[in-house]
Amino acid sequence: MNIHEYQAKQLLRSYGAPVSDGRVVLRAEEAKTAAGGLDGPLWVVKAQIHAGGRGKGSFKEADAGEKGGVRLAKSVEEAAEEAKKMLGKTLVTHQTGPAGKQVNRIYIEEGSDIETELYLALLVDRVTSRVSFVCSTEGGMDIEEVAASTPEKILSFSVDPATGYQAFHGRRIAFALGLEGAQVKQCVKLMGQLYTAFIERDMEMLEINPLIVTDKGDLKVLDAKLSFDGNALYRQSDVAELRDETEEDPKELQASKYDLNYIALDGEIGCMVNGAGLAMATMDIIKLNGAEPANFLDVGGGATKEKVTEAFKIITSDKNVKGILVNIFGGIMRCDVIAEGVIAAVKEVGLQVPLVVRLEGTNVEQGKKLINESGLNVIAADDLKDGAQKIVAEVKG
């Protein structure tokens, strides 16, 4: 789960991290009051969306102005005006794709005098199964670009969970970033605060880009992006309350309410599968046959008729879907339950695109019989390869 920058800074502030004072604006008429509550002489006005590259982004609407999603203002009035220009408009960045995201929140914060921009992140390293620090002197840039062009400027190391964070970890980062004097001590303290927040709050990623050195020589968190483990939200109720559902794909949000593992993709063939591994294999074989999957959807091993029905409805709600492949290998999951769910869903929402069904495993004969006797226009498949070839042929044909 992702949260907005202003929420991330509020959370990090509670752990003692140095962040600028700021105000969130939800309505245009609140902008001037929010800006007026901050000391000048410089204000920073930031669009709040769940995507990076805001400063380099652009708005679809001409009346939003030609500047990106991060703007500087030299007066309260100018800050309020910039906020009004961005609210309700669609911001397009390299991470949002061409559709962009609507800006429903603005964050106005005090400006900072920047001496140096640095990069810092904590993330879960799936190779070592540990938390890793990543830092670079190339702050303000996309870390992927730095990794591709100047990888020697990136330091990455993991922390042994048996010892946890130690002062020498912070000193290692400080020296790699070229910090000196009192800045080293600040870095050691800040890294400890961030590591504690990362562990206690079940984060998957904590990115600060940039981490700055001010003109007074102090470290400050200028931007922050936090991502949390969705499977741990049951023990992070205050974090769960920060969820902004307007930033999420409606289909993915609906799927989560039925405990379905669904991720929207850009292809044209909808997939309904049981088991994450089989779902990945199904998407792969669709691509191998010259088409693209429209989604990842794992209904799980214990899906009910109702869950299957909802899964089918979610797939058909995607306007990009030109065909559907149902691929079920019944172990714990029974094929007749899948068949009942598909039949119920088709009767409820209709079937406007080709549907190929491949069933194998527990109660497979009952499942096939239900499908065959339903009167639905369903194409049967003998195996996974046959199913993929048939649905691709239907879509391409």
Structural account:
It is an enzyme of class 6 (ligase). It holds the Pfam family Ligase_CoA. Pathway: One-carbon metabolism; formaldehyde assimilation via serine pathway; Carbohydrate metabolism; tricarboxylic acid cycle; succinate from succinyl-CoA (ligase route): step 1/1. Belongs to the succinate/malate CoA ligase beta subunit family. The protein is of the alpha+beta class. It folds into 3 domains: about 20-110, Dna Ligase, domain 1, CATH 3.30.1490.20; about 115-240, 2-Layer Sandwich (D-amino Acid Aminotransferase, Chain A, domain 1); about 250-395, 3-Layer(aba) Sandwich (Rossmann fold), CATH 3.40.50.261. The protein has helices at about 5-15, 30-35, 75-85, 145-150, 165-175, 180-200, 235-240, 250-255, 275-290, 305-315, 335-350, 365-370, 385-395, and strands at about 20-25, 45, 60, 70-75, 90, 100, 105-110, 115-125, 130-135, 155-160, 205-215, 220, 225-230, 260-265, 270-275, 295-300, 325-330, 355-360, 380. The strands form 5 sheets. Strands 8, 9, 10, 11, 12 and 13 form a 6-stranded antiparallel β-sheet that branches. The relative contact order is 0.09.
